[in-house]
Design goal:
By secondary structure, the protein is α+β, with helices and mostly antiparallel strands. The protein has two domains: 72 residues, GMP Synthetase, Chain A, domain 3; 63 residues, SH3 type barrels (Roll). The chain has three helices and eight strands; from the N terminus they run αββαβαβββββ. A five-stranded antiparallel beta sheet has the order 7-6-5-4-8.
Length: 151
């Protein structure tokens, strides 16, 4: 089983959602970002949630002989990354920043209100409302997308 699959299975089994997973060079640092599943969105991630996931992952890594130096488990933060297609549906109506892999015209960065995810000709398209106009981007062309926190 690959490391990402092992982590996702463990996190989901504990009732959380795996948002992102990062490693340092040579995988000595493992950084895991968790969130509540969509059905359990009553509150954010607490320190106790991170400790529970960290403890369980440490045990799983010991059994599976995963070699690492440090494990960090964290919430995704207020500027949560949108990674999976379900994220674009779940956070529709929220303000986001999007960076494209390949520029659209001469622009690579866009900000606006997420209008959801649609499928056109078999291609998943992210819809973003920018100044009353709706821009569409192929999901595969999005390099990075993050929520914009409201204070």
């Amino acid at each position: 089983m690959q490391l990402i699959d092992l982590i996702e299975t463990t996190v989901v089994g504990l009732g959380y959602e795996l948002v992102e997973f990062e490693t340092s060079p040579r995988a000595r640092l493992l950084r895991v970002f968790i969130d509540r599943s969509e059905s359990a969105l009553k509150s954010g991630i607490s320190v106790e949630d991170c400790a529970a996931v960290s403890s369980q992952l440490s045990r799983v890594f010991m059994v599976e002989n995963v070699d690492y130096d440090r494990l960090e488990v964290s919430s995704p933060g207020l500027d949560r990354a949108l990674v999976k297609p379900a994220d674009y549906r779940r956070f529709a109506g929220q303000e986001v920043q999007i960076k494209l892999r390949v520029p659209l015209g001469n622009q690579r960065n866009f900000s606006g209100v997420l209008d959801g995810l649609r499928e056109e000709s078999g291609i998943e398209m992210v819809c973003l409302r920018v100044n009353e106009a709706v821009q569409q981007f192929a999901l595969e062309n999005i390099d990075r997308a993050r929520l914009v926190p409201k204070f």
